[in-house]
Design brief:
With 196 residues, the chain is mainly alpha-helical. It folds into 2 domains: 1-104, RNA polymerase sigma factor, region 2, helix turn helix motif (Rna Polymerase Sigma Factor, Chain: A, Orthogonal Bundle), CATH 1.10.1740.10; 120-196, Arc Repressor Mutant, subunit A, CATH 1.10.10.10. Helix content is 71%, strand content 0%. α1 (8-20) crosses α2, α2 (24-46) packs across α6 (144-155) and α6 runs antiparallel to α7 (160-167). The longest helix has 25 residues, at 76-100. It is globular and about 55 Å long. The N and C termini lie far apart (41 Å). 25% of the residues are buried.
Length: 196
């Protein structure tokens, strides 16, 4: 793990510079720092755990190859999320073309965040799976940019400014996309009979 106490952005840029200068372990430290966040983001974008893990690896491979082109005026984290977003978009585009050919993939449930202490009964589990499927399909139905903005702000905790950096859009556009995504989700969930 990276021991020196630097602000996150400075630490990340320092690690990347050290990697570019030939210190391979510096990139390993960046992977350790960001692997789980990138995986969670990709899992929420594509809804498939195994595919999200593969896309996480692809993200870090692309970052590894493009490290020399990183511009220090950006945060490493937003640069990495932008790479991950591009991986997710490619995956979703590939799926859409397969779906148009008649293939379908199963919808996975949402993660419990490791809080599965008390298991509900079978009826409640079935109900929860149904609701989870409805929510997953509703999120999947959002336009790509709206879904990405929503996932980055709501699930990943990025600020509007950070999301604007990832997506290359003004902050106001990001706020508008998140607002529209929430409104569209609420409408779809109401139509599916799910209240608050």
């Amino acid at each position: 793990m990276y021991e020196v106490l630097l602000p996150q952005a400075d630490r990340d840029v320092d690690l990347l510079r050290r990697f570019v200068a030939g210190e391979r372990s510096a990139f390993d430290s960046l992977v350790d720092l960001y692997h789980l966040r990138i995986y969670r983001f990709l899992w929420r974008m594509v809804g498939d755990r195994a595919r999200a893990e593969e896309l996480t690896q692809d993200t870090f491979v692309r970052a590894f190859r493009a490290a020399q082109s990183f511009k220090a005026r950006f945060r490493f984290s937003t640069w990495l999320y932008a790479i991950a977003r591009n991986c997710a978009r490619s995956e979703l585009k590939r799926r859409r073309s397969r779906w148009s050919a008649g293939e379908r993939e199963p919808v996975e449930g949402l993660p419990d965040g490791g809080r599965a202490a008390a298991r509900p009964g079978p009826d409640r589990q079935a109900e929860m799976r149904e609701v989870t499927g409805v929510v997953r399909r509703a999120v999947d139905a959002l336009p790509d940019d709206h879904r990405t903005a929503l996932v980055l702000t709501f699930y990943e905790g990025l600020s509007y400014e950070e999301v604007a950096e990832v997506l290359g859009r003004p902050r106001g556009t990001i706020k508008s996309w998140v607002f529209r995504a929430k409104r569209q989700l609420a409408r779809m969930l109401r139509n599916a009979g799910i209240q608050d």
